[in-house]
Design a protein that fits this description.
The protein is α+β, with helices and mostly antiparallel strands. The protein is built from seven helices and five strands.
């Protein structure tokens, strides 16, 4: 069955089983491997993409459900890592192993698209479905705050000013995300 949708701003048509998960269409049919397979049950967030701007787990999303919709993957967030979230991730040096990071970035970008200056609680809530096996949650939270600054939100009083201040803030904080502390 031919299914049409917009992928990263370009019209796309695939002829696949309508029940095939979007993740496998992206990775196996279209060769877009930036979106990762983690758990296959929408529990880890590694497969997060945007559907109509909302962070969505592609591993459980049947391709038939995205007919006529706009999908953005990590490859479509920006062609040159210029998206504020990507810039902040690099600046704060968030990734450790990096496997979960495309899903983390997509969740953070969806949050910032709806809330320009999120609180720590907003970030924790938006990111709680993304698990990082390396435990980079504090750097993730800091990078979301930095991305908010980069996209023009005014800095909060407790936000980072320098990389050294960020390190001190990270040492002092305990963050609970994805079921880990």
């Amino acid at each position: 069955m031919a299914i049409q949708f917009t992928l990263n701003g370009k019209p796309q048509t695939v002829d696949v089983n309508p029940n095939m998960p979007l993740l496998w269409v992206l990775r196996d049919t279209l060769g877009m491997t930036g979106t990762k397979f983690g758990c296959g049950m929408a529990l880890c967030g590694a497969c997060t993409v945007h559907i109509e701007g909302a962070a969505t787990r592609s591993c459980i999303t049947p391709i038939s459900s995205v007919a006529g919709k706009k999908i953005t993957t990590i490859e479509g967030l920006s062609p040159d890592r210029s998206h504020p979230v990507q810039k902040a991730w690099i600046e704060i040096d968030v990734p450790q192993c990096g496997y979960c990071q495309s899903g983390q970035i997509m969740s953070a970008a969806a949050l910032l698209a709806t809330k320009a200056q999120p609180s720590d609680a907003d970030i924790d809530d938006a990111m709680k479905g993304n698990i990082c096996r390396c435990g980079t949650y504090q750097r993730i939270r800091q990078a979301v705050h930095r991305a908010a600054q980069l996209q023009g939100a005014p800095a909060k009083a407790a936000s980072i000013g320098t990389h050294e201040n960020a390190e001190q803030a990270l040492i002092a904080e305990t963050v609970e995300l994805g079921g880990a502390v």
